[in-house]
């Protein structure tokens, strides 16, 4: 079946302004979009540039805005897209563009680092593992599976308006450690998220949840953070 | 006071926005029902003044005004924080919001309190 | 920051940030939020107006009746029906937000939004009819 | 413009092995990690099933000991593993896993709060520690996050093109690496006291693989181009259960949790091939069994080219709790709901048992062996770890879940060794012309305006490897493949890219990757041709038996310009378990 892909193009070396370029090719309904992009790159237009690695939705490289929605190209099947009109592929919204579909995510990473994304437990460790019941583990089971693809933060209207906002991904990361029974830095972490640019910027819009390729209910965890902040003495 | 952090982080604003919201949910729907549906609250001077002479109604209406002003202006402040990034503009807008709030509370207070106390 | 940043990176990038991404897909959640904001702004302006009007009570019956006449025209009556809709939406969606924030309602946010929409339609239409009947009498 | 950087330690590759070493060194020295992708995109994150270690948390199949773990690994390796290395590994594994837990890895738990363990192929005890079915993701993120805490410096999206080597007292010595910044195409010279290669494997030389697009064996290529040897390259592992037809990995954990394979007749055919271990036999055995079933006409589907993996009988709740990602993969890519129907699977290229040979004690890269088969020359302070390395833990066939433990155990060992030696090292100036060669290379590729496309050559390579060098091999097919690779290497000299941009030139990177791929593919085929026996993952139809007399030896392949690769043999260390017949 024929499908048309309308792809955002921009190469700072030669383009003053970004533009869209259309590619029409034969595709199978069961192909993933990433393979279509590879096909275009390898057989039609070698200059098309995008990030990709694992090809099965775990590395988080190929996040892009597809038909106006942030998702991973490697997890989007052609049959799930409307092929009756051109499929619009853009770099993730709101991040600066390096080239074509490649965005500069440094600001996103900076925010991830801001919430101190590492377990801190400086008590002398026991001779074996820290004990943690399955119920306690379940609290963070979904939250730790974040792949840092940036789809959520880029889909958040609060972030569009204000890129100082920590954003869903960083708040989820904070949640993952605050609610980890092994972590001892809870109070400091709560202080970090309890900021004008922290949890209070979340207006439960749920765009992040719609965008998350790992289907993490990020808003839920941010809400739990909010409750935890107001019920803790800081 | 830094306007970026609105005095505190926003935790207070967030929490009380919800608390006042719950209160307003009840009182506003009640208010509107009485005023427009039941027919008991025809809006004439006597009718309103009569009700306002009841101290309970007076208390209720006063707290209604306080909650509504807080909830409304706080809501605007939250939206402003999303879209206005400059510290200076934030300071200006914050001041205006506070002044508007104080002025309207004053207006409401001088209207509501004197009835029935003469 | 422990990531290497070449000074050249900044020159290279294209900033395409906008304060609102209009062509991003609209989900139920975004509708709910935008409507909530807009209705909120509308209600604040109404509140200001309302307090201003009511404050004429303190100037005695004559002043009050005069201002009530100005806002008692059919146009204002129709607007009041609209106001009722705005109130109902903002109130019920507000409750949805509270349920999401306080009682883990995020899993059911879409269903909750549909309930909000349902109540909004029913109460607005119902209330609107009652108000319209009052107007005619 | 060429940029210079100095760091005490340079680690190439930000996967599990690289970050594990970085975390070990960071408290005492200045460490920089150079990676082709942002660290959390490294392919370690795709590892699913778990990490093997003797913790004795789940005793359902009896008490476990390091000796048993060692035995399973040695037997799994078809006795080609170096047993001193395996012993070290089996003893250190529990410590390494517990350490990871202390750093915050969110392992799945037993009801009493200890780390949960599951079954895996070839392991006779329940010893696989796991975090649902995203263990690699959990471990990699833990290490990356801890390294952020320790202030490790990252150079993400830098492509390392070459090593800077020098000679010293009869050995080689490493002085740093040359890399280019993918975002700006500027050259960067990194000088350091020690270098670790943790560049991962190179499954992308095959058409169907569970490996990432970025998994192109750049470390292998770099070493081989320098005239240094690659060891045991003839053993690429084919994972029996790749999702049909894409080759995406379906973890062995599915069979560990009770799943089993069936053919078109609905038979549980593994009972015939491995009466004791059945579906939990090692991967080489299961892959061969699947191929045999397909060749004998019992495959399923219109082309009869795959088999089915049944898991629905363990119940929806168990699947959702223990294998949530697998459920999602099957659902997304094939539309199969594995709580109701079996998953279509076929073997997929998965792992490189071979790689950069390392020294038993120091972990330094081996440069040459003497006629007696013992190491005669090393590259001082150049280390290798993870899949890129061949410590010879896995021998001819790796047991599932041993590789993740491998990365952290040996990443840790490299780190510790670096810490010991760093103080004693004096830095020497780099040669004047360093980086010139690489600059020229990039210029040459960018300036060529016609010739052959990178993708064309790569596709031909992948096709050839898949057709001729997969599970079953013959002399004829291997020679065909080697000739094809030689031809492709010639044609590579004329390769050109359409993209001339100096900003994020992905095509240029693909061209450089292809050079590496063509190099180690040659080593792989030449080694396979040399090994005239069947052992582990290497099944020669023309030599179906194991030949301990001639081939109980590691193969080392050296590049020779314009000629067939030179093959040497290195001794296998046998301490506790003399070779026996391998039955499952």
Describe the structure.
The complex is a heterotetramer of chains A (234), B (118), C (137) and D (584). Chain A is α+β, with helices and mostly antiparallel strands. Helices cover 33% and strands 14% of the residues of chain A. Chain A has two domains: 102 residues, Ubiquitin-like (UB roll); 126 residues, Orthogonal Bundle (Fumarate Reductase Iron-sulfur Protein, Chain B, domain 2). Chain A has nine helices and seven strands. In chain A, strand 3 and strand 4 form a beta hairpin. In chain A, helix 2 packs parallel to helix 6, helix 6 packs antiparallel against helix 7 and helix 6 packs across helix 9. The longest helix of chain A has 14 residues. The mean pLDDT of chain A is 93. With 118 residues, chain B is mostly helical. Chain B has one domain: 3 helical TM bundles of succinate and fumarate reductases. Chain B is elongated, with a radius of gyration of 17 Å. The N terminus of chain B is likely disordered. Chain C has a single domain, classed as Fumarate reductase/succinate dehydrogenase, transmembrane subunit (3 helical TM bundles of succinate and fumarate reductases). Chain D is 34% helix and 21% strand. In chain D, strands 1, 2, 3, 7, 8, 9, 10, 11, 19 and 20 form a ten-stranded mixed beta sheet that branches. In chain D, strands 14-13-17-16-15 form a five-stranded antiparallel beta sheet. In chain D, strands 4-6-5 form a three-stranded antiparallel beta sheet. The mean pLDDT of chain D is 94. Chains in contact: A-B, A-C, A-D, B-C, C-D. Chains A and D meet through helix 1 and helix 3 of A and helix 3, helix 4, strand 14, helix 10 and helix 13 of D.
